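Minimal example, chain plus heme C.
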Amino acid sequence: MKKSRFDRWLVAAIFLAGTASPAFAASGCDSIAGIPIRWNINYENDIQALFNARCSNCHVKSGGSPEAGLNLDPGASWDSLVNAPSHEQLGRILVVPGQPSNSVMFEKINCATPNAGRRMPRGPRTPLPLTEQALIYDWIMLGAPLGQTDFIFLSGFEARP
Ligand code: HEC
């Protein structure tokens, strides 16, 4: 006997429920697939310099307390981000070394509609250029070191989104 349409639908539904249930559903995320990978990244000169230029006044010192409790000042930013819990998305981590797609911080700079709050840097500032988004991605992918990246993670590089 042929399977009924309902049976087939049920099989499809069970299959989908089991596989296609993304834990996070940020949307409007930019593709950085076209940006060449950067292996040679220095925290102070590249990542902290980006925070100083793009995240200043809100997360970098301006006399007040940093937005969302996130201090991106020189000397504080790495501890604030790496393996640190998100204040907005409970149970998630801001920067998971080696897993940019699982890191709240990357989602916040990469996606028009993150899972919580607005895209960073917050408006009226414009989103980061793709090269800067890719720089953050590559730094996280390479283990998010405080210092200089090396090549030990090269073989485990995730495909770019
Ligand atoms: C104009 C002010 C402003 C600028 C500039 C800004 N932010 Fe934010 N940021 C906020 C505010 C306000 C929040 C909390 C509300 C929200 O998420 O929209 C926040 C939240 C965040 C969070 C979530 C923190 C958590 O615990 O979940 C991250 C990550 C973040 N910002 C990163 C950045 C980065 C990286 C930059 C620079 C590239 C940046 N922000 C620039 C104001 C700003």
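Residues 24-156 form one domain. Residues 16-22 have pLDDT under 50 and may be disordered.
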